[in-house]
């Protein structure tokens, strides 16, 4: 897709999303009022949100082997089995709690008896520190999601197990949170022994059928755009800082502008005005986007173009990095942990065709569930009005059906969930 055609499609998608929101608002007039009290939650960080609603909140900093200082939050239930929640691209730990106690997966898991941990990968709002570099240094941003799987996840998993006293944990990853899990398995396969089960929401590995205008725009200019931005001194994609966050909250705080902001999310991930609670939009905009590196976006663009799930392509420099002309593929066959997959038909970023490609490569999928709502999109899996009713309760049943090794001496008797292959 050329640059001009990509831009035309991007504009078309944006205005179509805006039209859909206007039509939805016309038929749902009572959803237009945005309570002023919600604006406070848009300004609170993860630990402040947890504390505000009366839950036990803990805040930690974890250092990766290559020196990144990663923010880690906990809804603490000492003595309970830990579950690690890992956010997606341009997101943060806020995503698991920002919709409030009745509509957030983090709170639901805590209420069901789990010790809930919420990670933040390098470069997002809560992980912009390094032992040597400042976030103003180009060297700080010299990473993709590869380094998150190789360095961030091992450090976080080891820390959670040390603090909780358990030898295993449940893992739930949304979007990029699943991508880096596959990389962890490929590059550091011993960590699969530490996972009770991995539950993947909108799992990303292959992007062959991706319909997101933003990702396709990046992919269409595979090398030119990232190198131009880097040469111009831009290292972060959709920068997140206090000034930008204040602007977002101001720009999206009334009805008309909030529909414009919501249309931007729709343009990225697919049309579904019905699942987005418009009264909560100021909170969403207050917490996202949470930042990412230009190289992350470049790497996703490479996956889109190549049709492969592989390491970063350095072009003529591949031989220096890998000893080969092409980047090595990630070995999905090493994902030995039990995996449950949940996906949506209207997900523009990861449509069902790409999920099927991943499913056919994973060796131990025990659940594959297509949400029975044709309008569900990428973020509806974590923010949707009906996510708890039609998805999260199912996830909980799957989690509870698998007994961790720590709780059972006879590994062969661990429950295996029926695989729904469709």
From TrEMBL:
Active-site residue list: 175 (nucleophile), 347 (charge relay system), 378 (charge relay system)
Family: Belongs to the AB hydrolase superfamily. Lipase family.
UniProt KW Signal keyword: yes
Signal peptide span: 1-25
Pfam families with a match to the protein in the record: Abhydrolase_1
GO terms, molecular function: hydrolase activity, acting on ester bonds
Protein known as: Lipase
Encoding gene (name): Dsec\GM18538
Domain annotation AB hydrolase-1: ranges: 82-372
Keywords (A to Z) from UniProt: Glycoprotein, Hydrolase, Lipid degradation, Lipid metabolism, Signal
GO biological process, one term: lipid catabolic process
């Amino acid at each position: 897709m050329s640059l001009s055609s990509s831009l035309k499609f991007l504009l078309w998608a944006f205005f179509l999303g805006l039209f859909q929101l206007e039509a939805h608002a016309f038929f749902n007039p009572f959803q237009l009022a945005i309570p002023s009290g919600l604006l406070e939650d848009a300004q609170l960080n993860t630990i402040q949100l947890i504390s505000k609603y009366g839950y036990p909140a803990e805040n930690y900093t974890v250092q990766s082997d290559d020196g990144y200082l990663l923010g880690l939050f906990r809804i603490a239930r000492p003595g309970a089995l830990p579950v690690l929640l890992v956010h997606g691209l341009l997101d943060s730990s806020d995503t698991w709690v920002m919709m409030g106690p009745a509509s957030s997966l983090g709170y639901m898991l805590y209420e069901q008896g789990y010790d809930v941990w919420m990670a933040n990968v390098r470069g997002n709002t809560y992980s912009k520190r390094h032992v040597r570099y400042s976030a103003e240094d180009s060297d700080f941003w010299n990473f993709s999601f590869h380094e998150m799987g190789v360095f961030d996840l091992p450090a976080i998993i080891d820390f959670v197990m040390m603090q909780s006293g358990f030898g295993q944990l449940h893992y739930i990853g949304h979007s990029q949170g699943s991508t880096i899990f596959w990389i962890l398995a490929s590059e550091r396969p011993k960590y699969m022994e530490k996972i009770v089960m991995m539950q993947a929401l909108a799992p990303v590995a292959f992007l062959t059928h991706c319909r997101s205008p933003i990702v396709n725009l990046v992919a269409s200019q595979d090398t030119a755009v990232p190198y131009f931005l880097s040469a111009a001194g831009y290292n972060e994609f959709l920068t997140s800082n206090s000034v930008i966050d204040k602007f977002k909250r101001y720009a999206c705080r009334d009805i008309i502008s909030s529909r414009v902001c919501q249309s931007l999310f729709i343009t990225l991930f697919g049309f579904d005005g019905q699942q987005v609670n418009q009264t909560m939009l100021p909170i969403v905009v207050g917490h996202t986007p949470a930042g990412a590196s230009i190289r992350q976006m470049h790497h996703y663009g490479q996956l889109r173009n190549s049709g492969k799930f592989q390491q970063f392509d350095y072009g003529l420099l591949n031989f220096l990095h890998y000893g080969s002309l092409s980047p090595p593929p990630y070995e999905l066959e090493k994902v030995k942990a039990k995996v449950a997959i949940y996906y949506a038909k209207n997900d523009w970023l990861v449509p069902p065709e790409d999920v099927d490609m991943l499913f056919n490569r994973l060796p131990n999928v025990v659940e594959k569930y297509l949400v029975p709502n044709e309008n569900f999109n990428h973020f509806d899996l974590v923010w949707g009005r009906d996510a708890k009713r039609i998805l999260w309760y199912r996830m909980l049943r799957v989690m509870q059906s698998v007994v961790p090794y720590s709780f059972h001496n006879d590994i062969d008797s661990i429950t295996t969930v029926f695989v729904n292959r469709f």
